[in-house]
Specification:
By secondary structure, the protein is an alpha+beta fold. The protein is built from 3 helices and 4 strands; from the N terminus they run αβαββαβ.
């Protein structure tokens, strides 16, 4: 019985962590290259709206961006880039520009 409670607690914590990491429209997004040779080329390939590059991310090769409109998460994943929602603490304000 106690093991089932621990498993349920772990599942709830994993789901909450996943919800925090989902990219939100208009929010800052950390783009982490997985299989892409360049994050910038993947951003251009994914398109999806006006994109403001805020700065390079804290992971080598990553970018911190803000996207107007919906986040093309599947397009980023197909391009070999993992989009993660970034907390506002790590973001600066920037006007979106067309890539």
């Amino acid at each position: 019985m106690a093991r089932a409670a621990v498993v349920q607690l772990c599942l709830v914590l994993a789901i909450l962590a996943a919800c925090l990491a989902l990219p939100r429209p208009g929010g800052a997004i950390l783009l982490i290259p997985l299989f892409a040779p360049s994050t910038a080329s993947a951003v251009h390939a994914a398109g999806g709206g006006r994109i403001a590059v805020l700065r390079s991310g804290w992971i080598p090769g990553s970018l911190l961006v803000r996207i107007d409109g919906d986040v093309p998460a599947w397009a980023f994943l197909r391009a070999g880039v993992l989009p993660l929602g970034a907390p506002a603490l790590f973001c600066a304000s920037a006007e979106p520009t067309t890539p």
